[in-house]
Amino acid sequence: MNLKSIIIAGKEIFPLVEGGKGVNVSTGLTSGRWANCGGAGTFSGVNPDFKDENGKLTAPISFKGKNRFERQIELIKYGIKGCLDQAKIAHEESNGNGLVFMNVLWEQGGSQELLKGVLEKAKGTIKAISCGAGMPFKLADICSENNVFYNPIVSSVRAFQLLWKRSYSRFKDWLGAVIYEDPWVAGGHNGLSNSDNPNQPEKPMQRLIEIRKFMNEVGLKSVPIIIAGGIWWLSEWIDYLDNEEIGPVGFQFGTRPMVTVESPLADTVKQKLLNTEKGDVKLQRFSPTGLYSSAIRNEFLMELEDQLNRQIRFEEEQNFSTGFDVGVELTSTGKTVYINKADKEKLESFIKKGYSKVMKTPDDTLLFVSENRYKTIMEDMKNCVGCLSACMFSGWAQKEGLVIKPDPRYFCIQKGLQGISHTDDVKNNWLFAGQIVHRFKLDPFYKNGTFIPTVKQLFERILTGY
Ligand SMILES: Cc1cc2nc3c(=O)[nH]c(=O)nc-3n(C[C@H](O)[C@H](O)[C@H](O)COP(=O)(O)O)c2cc1C
Ligand code: SF4
To answer: Under CATH, what is the fold of the domain 6-276+437-463?
Structure first.
């Protein structure tokens, strides 16, 4: 295929990027090998693995802190160590010459401290920071101070305009690329805004034209846009190449590089990815960040979906005139609240089926869960390490004064993602993947799920257009 090279962070490369994937899915090894092929590889800066002084892998980390604040401080310290370890591996794997990016989720707990801590010490190894999930106004500031490029990840021109006007226009020279992530189809968290209809996907072309138009207006004509989300065969993207309306472009792959020899995922996870059907990935809102996200519908996700059907509205006070007069005891406090007598049968059927534990949600509903699920929810909330800046599940918020009510309809994403990258349990963990994941099964390259390529083989295959 006739692919035009692009220049990012001062380096001319093939326009192919491995997207950052946390926790520990895109690593120093995967990104370094990708960069060594002549593209740009992004390792994840979201709680990456590191080795202790004896060279032993420390995952899962045991935390000593007595409360969430203390544990978050530990998490940031370990995060910096992990990022530095992964940066070194990526640098070496790319023969010291490849284009290595680090990915940070702006809403991850302590993202700014982490970024500063890493960039201070990682001189020369990380060429740019790719960052989305939130509005990273300070990203440009921190990166330029450390002579490192920044690649904001956006899903609309509006988001980029806001970032540009409030901050990036002052740090123009350090803007490496703008990553446009399709909010309807990309794996991981999705940046759908209030004006986007989750059920009405829009093709990237028009949105890319809008972004390029704005970029041209503010003097960013030569800065590439990296398209992310739903990319499998480049031969299907011919219209986006050499297209003056969208200018220089590259392509970011997230889901496809999850199945390589170098990918740290267990064989069971790779097999799950290789055998997924169309429709197995749906946009949903279970991530405790509050954002939409795309993950494979496994047993765990189905349980979260199912528990939404086991809710009953309640009131704090008994009220005979409105019918809210049936008392129900909350499991954790023993306090009695009241449901409407019209819901009494529902209540009895939940209990009969074994969903006897009763939890409050912030929407004035009671959630009925099994004994096992109740124990897990309580334990996960208790063990929270503050991996996010604000968590809808545990109610943790790193910003003083911000109060979030815990909500058992979400889950601990830290645990679910660590579980998927460090165990072979694909049923009870959280497996992010793009809508396009079913293409593994259809693509002859994978020989009906029996062939797993190396990063180099995958990269070379992508260059053919297939
Ligand atoms: C397992 C997985 C984890 C991801 N984690 C992150 C992340 O931590 N930060 C981020 O900015 N993007 C993340 N992404 C998004 C990817 O970097 C990439 O942009 C996206 O997957 C591209 O769409 P595709 O999945 O259709 O290839 C993740 C994607 C996947 C599949
Ligand atoms: S409960 Fe889990 S997902 Fe939420 S902040 Fe704590 S560690 Fe992170």
So the answer is: TIM Barrel (3.20.20)
